[in-house]
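Q: My labmate handed me this sequence with no annotations at all. I'd like to see what the chain might look like in three dimensions before we decide whether it's worth expressing. Could you predict it?
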Amino acid sequence: MTKHFKRYTVTSALPYANGAIHIGHLAGVYVPADIYVRYLRSIGEDVIFIGGSDEHGVPITIKARQEGVTPQDVVDRFHYIIKKSFEDFGISFDIYSRTSNAIHHETASDFFLKLYNDGKFIEQTTEQYYDEEAKQFLADRYIIGTCPLCNNEKAYGDQCESCGSSLNATDLINPKSTLSGNTPVLKVTKHWYLPLDQYENWLKEWILEGHKEWKSNVYGQCKSWIDQGLQPRAVTRDLDWGVKVPVEEAEGKVLYVWFDAPIGYISATKEWAKQKGKDWEPYWKEQDTKMVHFIGKDNIVFHCIIFPAMLKAEGSYILPDNVPANEFLNLENDKISTSRNWAVWLHEYLEDFPGKQDVLRYALCANAPEAKDNNFTWKDIQDRNNNELLAIFGNFVNRTVVLTHKYFEGRVPEPAEWTKSDREVIEELAFYPEKISKSIENYRFREALNEMMNVARLGNKYLTDQEPWKTIKTDEKRTKTILNLSLQICVNLSILCEPFLPFSAKKLCEILNIEQQTWKKAGNGDLLKPEHPLNPAQFLFEKIEDDAIEYQIKKLQDTKKANEAIEAVVNPMKPIISFEDFAQCDIRVGTILEAERIPKAKKLLKLQVDTGIDKRTIISGIAEHFEPEQIIGKQVSVLVNLAPKALRGIESEGMILLGEDHDGKLVFVIPETKINNGSEIK
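A: Here is what I predict for the chain of 682 residues:
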């Protein structure tokens, strides 16, 4: 370590308790976090690994209403599914808590009150939609209406899932409450806001100047947010599920889930400390503690900007030393989607592949989306198991132990004189612990895994080159030396692989008849003494057959077919219209002259379009599909007589026509050959 810390607080993003865990969660957050923590324990550090379920927020209330149960019923069900999946998969939390626990409500309330009493919040009165029949304010997802950009009649108050545009509830045409079906009314409500703009200069100094070593994807996203200018963010909302706002004038309000969820790390630490009879505060308030947040890229802003601002405002907490967020993992070249069931669910994997936790851990780490989005395929997991874990790691260990039993009654043979090639292997072996340590400490887990496998490659090559099955016929002493050194490499593997492959490390220790060794012993060529008895050989890994993979691929193909069938029902042909109705649509060919992103609207582009009639501004929800510079000069089809609509304070005068395939990919509807702007499309 470049800087010594007395203790480590390692957090992993709290999974939302309205669904199970899938491989995207594992690759992005939990596998790298577990590798890091297991390594820290092996080198003897004082570390607490915190996890827990995030159990508040609107999606849970919606799911409860759909199922006719209480929100508590929903979170209870999924909390235990998630917790058991993590345990079975070997994610070694010191505590896995939940934000519905009383200790969390108390901790979050106290945190809010500290900031409230210190005058750290600002109060703002706004107009929000209210359902007079249901007698409650409506969260964005409880409002549906017509999207002003694509005319989808089932857009939500925060997003249109048809065109992907971010919306405000007041943007919707003909808004309706999903609770009663009635048209909601605007009603005044008061909320408390964290004035992030007041922390902007501090964040510039702390992140942009003080943490240039952070991963480029994390640093870049933070810089983008800060450069756009930070705005106050509501910490309360009108809802009946969550941590109650602990002030008198806040009846019917709870803490916004983005505010209370990260406090769950603190409340979980308190819970752990109470169970262990320890003091929780050093893990959050002492400067010789290193705090690391493991998250996915969708949580970067919360853990790098908002939560640190909360901690800074409170005044007594340390700040994260690093936030090594990963990008997203795709599945078979398609974005993982829980709503479309396009995922590999952890609890299903554990049922379909019993005893193969390490195979998935290995594949997810080897293919981790550390710097960019990456792709998971079932063929890849089969190849990595059969051609790497089995053919290299498992083959080396099995041959070494089998030959030791065959030639020397399963006891470690005493080596004779080391040859030059032996000494070269011993010297190379000594370098690997430090190389792997450096990679792990710099959050380069794919690199670290590859170096660990290089130890297995080293042993496999050494055993193959030395051919003890031949030397036993002419030189028993030489055979003893070869197998002794091979067994020493096996012990080193049991140490170095443990953070990555904990189940295999345990099995390897059982074969070698030893306890798990600490990291400081790795690199040593004299860990097993002569005459030490080995246990019988057993396979560390088994071949994954084609039929097992074909079954998983077919399951995904069936899911895709089912989704396509559902989409055909959900998006049927719209009602037949008359020719006269269609004739009112004035669609012209235009050319995009300028394109730019709209600050804080990640799905919207502001376009300047030459329609042949005029040059006009059009707001289009295509920012996640096209880079602005890619579409400048492109001819497009424009509905030019659409009534103007103000979006994000900008008046949009028209609509760009696009096609969308089943995978959500957008393509422009364009003329076959270039024609004059203003040409009518009939």
